[in-house]
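Objective 1.3, modelling of assemblies. Example input:
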Amino acid sequence: MSSEKTSNSVDLVIRAGRLLTMRPGAAPINDMEVHIKDGKIAAIEPSEEGASHSSVETIDASGCLVMPGLINAHTHAAMTLFRGLADDMPLKQWLFEKIFPAEAEYLSPHNVYWSAMLAFGEMISSGTTCFSDGYFFQDKTFDAAIKVGIRGVIAQGVIDFPAPGVPDPEKNLDVGTKFIERWKGFSSLLTPSLFCHSPVTCSEKTLIGAMEICDSGGVPMQIHLSETLEEVNTIMGQKGIRPAYYLDRIGILKESLIAVHCVHLEDEEIRLLKERGTRVVHCPESNMKLASGVCAAEKIINAGIPLGLGTDGCASNNDLDMLREMDSAAKLSKVSSGAPTSLKAEVILRCATIEGARALGLDQEIGSIEIGKRADIIVVDLDKPHLQPLYDPISSIVYSANGGDVRDVIVEGKVLMRERKLLTVDMEEVMWNIKKIAKQIQG
Amino acid sequence: MSSEKTSNSVDLVIRAGRLLTMRPGAAPINDMEVHIKDGKIAAIEPSEEGASHSSVETIDASGCLVMPGLINAHTHAAMTLFRGLADDMPLKQWLFEKIFPAEAEYLSPHNVYWSAMLAFGEMISSGTTCFSDGYFFQDKTFDAAIKVGIRGVIAQGVIDFPAPGVPDPEKNLDVGTKFIERWKGFSSLLTPSLFCHSPVTCSEKTLIGAMEICDSGGVPMQIHLSETLEEVNTIMGQKGIRPAYYLDRIGILKESLIAVHCVHLEDEEIRLLKERGTRVVHCPESNMKLASGVCAAEKIINAGIPLGLGTDGCASNNDLDMLREMDSAAKLSKVSSGAPTSLKAEVILRCATIEGARALGLDQEIGSIEIGKRADIIVVDLDKPHLQPLYDPISSIVYSANGGDVRDVIVEGKVLMRERKLLTVDMEEVMWNIKKIAKQIQG
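Predicted structure (tokens):
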């Protein structure tokens, strides 16, 4: 194929990079070219020396790694607003004395919009092209995501307490139904969903109702599951069985459920999740910071369950950097299992890409660089002091890189960041608004 | 005091920053000015609006945090050369099958010089102004550090095996003696020292001899202590007592000993270290990655032992970023102890600054911003999306910042990095050399 012929039939060419497709077993290949047309990957071929793509938008990725965009499979985007507001506290005190009151007082559609914008600015700057979110005033998170052009699963929070935007908990499912109806099919980039806070904070009726709404909409449902020992003990006390069994008994442990945290699962529960097809998301840094415990990530992966990786919200992490999250996940797995061979670099990189896509039900669309898939791609600059020498790009990405090393970001074929300049987020405007809101919060 | 008067008597002014001195209990103060004269901190005072320092070199730190430079209390600088060469392996296999053979084949004065230069470039870029190092061909690490102008404790490695530059282990103490003699007093920035690899790889005679040499030179001695369970078991088998007791029995557990790792210390051993005045360095990321275990950092701090923080070498971390190391240390302490209140942000920040200085015996000179101390200062840009909103600068530094957020770096009053541009390291030259050497290693 001549490069001229190619040029005429594509919208964007990423050339001369070292390509890491994340297809199973595929090693990084030097000097490859990815052609993008109509938001999809149209061709992958060796870069021709001196080939001209003058008529086509081109990204020169020489010296860089070209790889699938990172997938942050669990976060609460607008909680960037509470980054650093309350650290070093027990989870329950942190949640009930700090976070819930701050949310009650300061969450508003306006504040959620700007906080989500801040989150998306941070996500794109650090190579995340797809996120899965659960929070309140989520119409505003949709608005922000649409403005920015990032991909995501955006879930309306469901909880049996008065919540931001849902003062009457009796109406939480009505709000959920309308949310799914409003946003279903609105954008090819964004999927609406419901996020039940936990088996403790949502009643059986609420959990079942939320799943029915998600089933009707053909969308996944998300829940925090077995995040703390206290949750497990509460459910054991109330229901006489462990949380995963409880969700199974009420019929919601199934393929469309995304179970987040899963810190306190017994082996039998892991087997049950596998049997039911439930997907899991691991948030190691949040679990570490809140001292919730250690998710047996490798065991879950070895059981054949799709395991995504998430940063959780910025109030308990305190950043959205998936490159750092991979490093933490791998190291935590090693030290907690006593096996330095645990959760190898490539395995955790799969969680942050293709397995994350699988956890969100999006693996036919994204998560790897393959012809026909959506063009969600990042270009990472490997020519930096802290990434050299470069014996193994996967090791560099997982153990040495951080968000600041991501140079270019493409979602659905559209360049959202180029040479570290965000093209769809006006960060000055965002920061101006965030500082104004934070001033009110700090008082 | 008029600013003009001030201007005439100082060499460098850092103005309008938020100042974090790291003096006990001192909160960050807005709009402060630090005056530097002859490499020392000459004055600390409120910034005067519109004050002119036109005749003096000035750093405008508006919107930034001005704080003491970070102290990496344990590393092997030139091991940057082996970054990413061997990951996800058991410590013994990693060390004996990968690292020792690579060192035997590829370490040379030339390669150590450029690898140390790479390390210093990375350190300065991420806010480290002082490091403590143990390795081989250390004359070259001295040369590189002198060229760069960074502060450090540089220790010649001592091990009872043939080692790079010391093929005959019988001569390891002679080499050590000459090393201390050569470099003692050579530079106000650099202290020579000896680094005994471990109680297992150095004989009793070697350990005692090394301590005698350090004592004669009035310099500290460093050792890896109780890094792995295997080491503890070996010493128990050989000596009938645990490693800390063994070092005490042979008389080297004392104030001038810097004990690194201390992962497997029993409470009685912690008490003994405290009694003897021994200092400890905690390397959480390396201990995690090699699955060595978890150092009871908080217990050691609470016992009143000076605890520094270190990245360890790049073959087991794989970076030299002290900002990330603080985050990992705090989170690891919380999850391993089950207490989210463990190792609070301010406590670990003290380990990376003033307590690190204390661990190295340098707390009279560095580690905090106080009049009369050496001017080792960094300016961190807090006006970034992932650091906003900013409720608490200490939280931002520990839980959200990374090395790339450090803007300016000053050591002994000399600016080594300004607006992220390294002024004393030619990174292009360093990278060119490192890539050339790495090509030989990769084959």
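Residues 77-359 of chain B form a domain with the TIM Barrel fold (CATH 3.20.20.140).
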